[in-house]
Amino acid sequence: MPTTELAGFAAAADDAAAAGSLRPRRSRSGALARAGLGVALPLAFALAWEGAARTGLITTFLMPPPSAVVTHIAQLFATGEIWDHLSATLSRMSLGFGFGVAAGTLLGALVGYLPIAHRLLDPSVQALRNIPSIAWVPLFILWLGIFETSKVTLIAVGVFFPVYMSLAQGFASVDRKLVEVGRVWRLSAFAMVWRILLPATLPTYIIGLRGGLGLGWMFVVAAELMGASEGLGYLMVDGQMTGRPAAIIASLVLFAVLGKASDLLLVTATRPLVAWQDGFRR
Amino acid sequence: MNAPLLRLDRAAKRFGNGRLALADVSLDVEPGEIVALVGASGSGKSTLLRLLAGLEAPTAGRALFRNVAIEGPRPEIGVIFQEPRLLPWLAVADNVGFGLAALPAAERGRRVERALDRVGLAAYARALPRELSGGMAQRVAIARALVGQPEVLLLDEPFSALDAFTRTDLQDHILDLWREDRPTLVLVTHDLDEALALADRVVLLAGPPGRIFAERTVGLARPRERTSSAFQEEKRQLLSTLQAARSGRTYDPEVLEVP
Is residue A36 classed exposed, middle or buried when 0-12, 13-18 and 19+ CB atoms within 10 A define those classes? Predict the structure, then answer.
């Protein structure tokens, strides 16, 4: 029953859109034009850089032109070398993200719902949050070894805090009047969280997830820079050791693409869940 | 004599900040009766209603339903708030059926459909709350309260945020619904016309701290014509009673004189 209701969000939103809300639907060409505007700046920058490199305005030894970076990326794909690194990074990232989200959601919901849990746990969590997560690395390596476990744990720690914060704070700001509707219908504590607090907090929660994802990418790099034999971060270290700036920049570009793509995926997947919002701009 | 359906027995409510919202209030409501609670803001009328709804507990005295203490919201007692309070992420039909999660889907669907039909919004079952006007949203809230088939409906200034036209419309609508299965209605309002259009009995509150200082049985036959001279005369008397309360004079609740 609760699952059908969650699925109902999306259905209701779709129906509502089909029924014709007052907002005009954006045309496909309009969407393309807007995406085009988004890439205009990086494209112009790349062209300028390329031009400067070709005319000898900058030395290409330390600052390789975009064409060299593109060639390097193409090579990585052509030799198939990239797939091992990509899958290593992506699997670390997804595991860490998964664990971080699960822990952040459970603890955040608990602390957000129960005042006693808030008083008991929140001060400690806030204190831990103030430790720069990278500072955990030596300890994690001692405890968990230098292989996957310590890396995944580090990423999970990074993801945990924004997700936790979004629920622990988000529940508190849910309209008391809606909570009262749940009381009138005598909802259990679980139903109150699942059917009122969580849906009402969903927009904030999604921002928490996105923040967690961003930090997750940050820590996957950190983890891989600290010592790994594969992964995009390893490619960077390798590029540094062998003095190939194009390899480093290629990894940077791949990180940017992956980060943006994962965020886009998250936003697209969750958009139907928050289509009910009557906000300023959507 | 049988116990009344609802009873407040010397009930008082003091909030955590020390403010006494309601002092020593006793009130009986009989089955099928329509009672209007009228008073200026600060007279404790909403607090009184929240005691009956089980949303607040009295700090002294008792609130009873069928002679049993009201210890929290009860299925027999429905509440309609000043705002529609629809869950913005649920379509209209899911809002109406929100409290029926325990029922099988088919039965729930039937009840929701019937409730929406009764408020004339069957066509909007799949719409989202943000697509509704204020009056429509409040009708959905009425449907949501009706769908549980409560014996008592508590209404906390339910139409005060609506324009005058929509307001009288919904007042008539509530009366139509009442004529069908005669739920007991307790209505908080600051609108004398609304009280006189709906209620069998008007209870006047003053405060703070809130207390009942007069009651008046409305001697108008139904259906009531808001523009009739009898209606206007009734209103004039009610108004002067209210003004007397503000100037501190007291009236015998049984005999309300007309100054």
Answer: exposed
How close A184 gets to chain B, by Cα (Å)? 5
Mutate to test the interface with A, among B89, B108, B153 (most CBs of A within 10 A): B89
Which DSSP string do the residues of A81-96 spell out, in sequence order?
HHHHHHHHHHHHHHHH
* Alpha carbons A144 and A150: distance in angstroms, whole number: 5
Label each residue of A177-204 as H, E or C.
Answer: HHHHHHHHCCCCHHHHHHHHHHHHHHHH
How does residue A276 score in pLDDT terms, banded at 50, 70 and 90?
Answer: confident
Nearest to B185 by CA among B38, B26, B37, B44: B37
Q: Give yes or no for residue B253 having a pLDDT over 50.
A: no
Best residue in A175, A184, A277 to probe B by mutation, most B CBs within 10 Å? A184
Mean pLDDT of chain B: 83
| Whether A12 contacts chain B with CB within 8 A | yes
ipTM value for the complex: 0.82
Alpha-carbon span B99 to A87, nearest angstrom: 47
